[in-house]
Fold:
Amino acid sequence: MQPPMGDMTVPTASADPQIIQMATGHIVAQALYVVAELQIADHLSAGPRTAAALAEATRTDASSLHRLLRMLTGLGLFTQTADGAFATTPLGDSLRSDAPGCARAMVRMIGGPTIWRACGELLHAVKTGTSGFDKAIGQPVFGYFAEHGDEAAVFNDAMIGFHGSEPGAVAAGYDFSTVGTLVDVGGGTGNLLMTILGAYPSVRGVLYDLAHVIGPARQAIEQRGLAGRCELKQGSFFDAIPSGGDAYLMSHIIHDWDEAKALAILGNCRRAMPRDGRLLLVEMVIPPGDEMHPAKLLDVTMMMATGGRERTADEYRDLYRKAGFELVRIVPTASAVSVVEGRPT
Structure:
């Protein structure tokens, strides 16, 4: 006998909250970008302020700004006082312009219009195996930054924040004491190289990068008192790499490029170094297993941004073999990166 319709329980489907939270991550990213761009944390450095006062200081709509900050209180960046004013938390303070770690620069780069457009072309990257940045912007990422100095400066600051504790971890995790001259290829403003030189007084450095990067690097090196031990050379690692080094360091360089370009860079490096030289790649190495690892997220980011990739240990071994190197060992550090050491074959 069929039960009355009123007694029937009709199953309903509901979306998994975790999936919804993941899918709305882009809204959170844009909210962070807005408060970083408006320097809200800087405006609150002297104490709590109302949304109206912040809106006047930032030339924004008070009601809209209030709603945005109210949402971010739920993520722990701000708190509201009893009278409705907003104040920063320790997490929110990390977005101040003078906060260590360059989190504000990282947020501005990731959430800014250029990278935002490129992220929208991830589907294109997956379908075609080519860079989403190229599709969205019409040129490769590093060519774009070479022509847009303001965004390049944000990118350089963001990379310091992204690499965070890596320089110290690399200097502590790998023994550079037997290196006479260390050539940092594509070393940006020299943050990693300066950290190594500071930890190993006997090592001399050569910083090699494009002309628009060398300028800011020179000032940073002089400020650290390392100008006498660090030579600056400008050029493209696709053309040639300076000779005369005992070890050649590349931090987050090879992951920027597809295999053909990666092999071209490594080939130039192989030609520049002596037979007993060392190749030292500072990269995240994808571990086996299903667990989430920063390298897996960065791998997809590189696929979208540059057409590059992160690699497993076996993939590095194969890449080294093709470029005329033997993978000697992978030295883990206290950070997410390892030092992938190779020697010419």
About this structure: The chain has three domains: 26-97, 111-159, 165-344. The longest strand covers residues 325-332. Residues 165-344 form a domain with the Rossmann fold fold (CATH 3.40.50.150).
